[in-house]
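Notes, Module 5: Reading structure tokens.

Key idea: the token line is not a picture. It is a compressed description, and you learn to read it the same way you learned to read a sequence, by spotting repeated patterns. We will look at two proteins. The first is printed below with its tokens.
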Amino acid sequence: MEQNRPLARAGYLLAASLVAIPLVDAILPLLPLRFGDERWRWSAVGQVSNLLLIPLVGILLAIAVTGLVNDQRVRRVIGIICGVLALVLAIMSLSFMLDYFQIRNAVIPRLRHTSSMASITTGVKDIFYIIFLALLSWGCLARPKATLT
């Protein structure tokens, strides 16, 4: 396993890049943060949900690297992070749906169908992401089963 350490460093760096770069690219245009504005929150959650697949691939890569070098401590940390992210995303998704119901009457009538379809699509993606993160968390935090050899 020791000979895999340099490869693991490169893997962790790539994984961190896959997580951080898309999130920074999505968050910077949303500045300044306006949490009190339901239209801004609805738009922000929708934009972030559109790009979460690549950061999730980065998290999965980091987990794979922990298996390559048998680093249980980092694997547990990633599992805790995944669990927290699943909870945060669930809260954001509920907020997103509530914000949609608050702003739907302000949407121009000819765009209501489009905004409702965008909300449904985002909700479905968020459910998938929450399940994926929960499974990753569970997999990382589960104790390995003892094998008889």
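Here is the second protein, with the sequence above and the tokens below, as before.
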Amino acid sequence: MSLYENIFIARQDATAAQVEALTDAFANIIAEQGGKVTKREYWGLRSLTYRIKKNRKGHYMLLNIDAPAAAVVEMERNMRISEDVIRLLTVRVDALEEGPSAMLQSRSRDDRPRGGRDRDDRRDDRRDDRPRRERSEGFSAPEGEPA
């Protein structure tokens, strides 16, 4: 059997529970055809780079699949029929990743507190002790305007 990675984006109107139900349905299709879904990752509701079918956001889901090609073709056919799936991509790979995907790793990296300063801290660094610049003696307002 071949190894595949499948990512699909569900509509923003769907809840996370509905996306899980969709994923279960697709996993059942794979199982009926003699394959198995080895990993599933829910990446959450994320903003899309551009609008797809009038949606600005979508629920992202990753599936690692070990199945024959006919099972993947049937799953993709059902994904295209489903109105909740707005985009899908299936790629054949040589080996499946075991740990969390790069998307989940970057999310955990973004969640940790940053050791550094906020923008508000920069205000304290400004040099308020330096003297203010005075207007030079030779400065005069343009003609017709008060000085």
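Summary for the second protein:
- Strands lie at 2-11, 36-52, 55-67, 85-93.
- The first strand starts at residue 2 and ends at 11.
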